[in-house]
Amino acid sequence: MSDLVTVQGVVLSAMPIGEYDKRIVLLTRERGKISAFAKGARRQNSPFMAAASPFVFGAFTLFEGRTSYNLNQVSVTHHFVELASAQPGIYYGYYFLELADYFGREGTDEREMMNLLYVTVKAILNPHIEDRLVRCIFELRTMTIQGLMPQLFQCAGCGREVNEEDELFFSQEAHGVVGRKCLGSVADGCRISGAALYAMRYIVTAPMGKLYTFTVTDEVLREMEHHIHTYVSGNTDKRFKSLEILDIMI
User: Fold this and answer.
1) Whether the Cβ atoms of residue 61 and residue 222 lie closer than 8 Å to each other
2) Which of 231, 234, 238, 242 is positioned for an S-S bond with 95, CB 3.0–4.6 A?
3) Domain architecture of the chain: domains with CATH
């Protein structure tokens, strides 16, 4: 006998199964990352046709079987259909879903990642925010949520407090900033400006609703891209398909 459960979540991916069905991956507040079968979701008259798609946020009612979940009902709160026509924004969005999927685990509270995905998708649709900056913010905040935040407030070498006026270097090896005196203790170290450090500190500490409320110069953005993208690459062991497409497009 199956049990009926309702979870708040977002669809990370959807894969065709057989002729008419789909398998969806959900990031949920109550049960972490789970997968479910949406029977008949590919039929034209199916109530799941639009709901069983990436970027859909809502309440998902599932039959919990002995070995799998089956979708029973969906109450959609946001589906962001306008994202499909955003270029290259849609591919940034798919990358963000991929990164959330990479870190997602069953049985964990994914409220923060769900909220981050929601405000990030809205940011992609905001023409006043550079997509490249949105990526930097999402990546660094994701690392923070996952317990992988780089050290930005103390020297990663000696532990002393540092500020934006100091001569500082970002070390991938040390997972954070180091001062001139500790630079010799790491094998790498790339100069980080006070403006880039200030922006990165804001990203890891700002309230979720305030994350996408600032801009930076193109010079600072390029610097942030170098530090953050390299840091994320060093802390993941997967080649993200959507990121490969993005690298070709931009």
Assistant:
1) no
2) 242
3) 3-79 (2.40.50.140), 129-249 (1.20.1440.120)
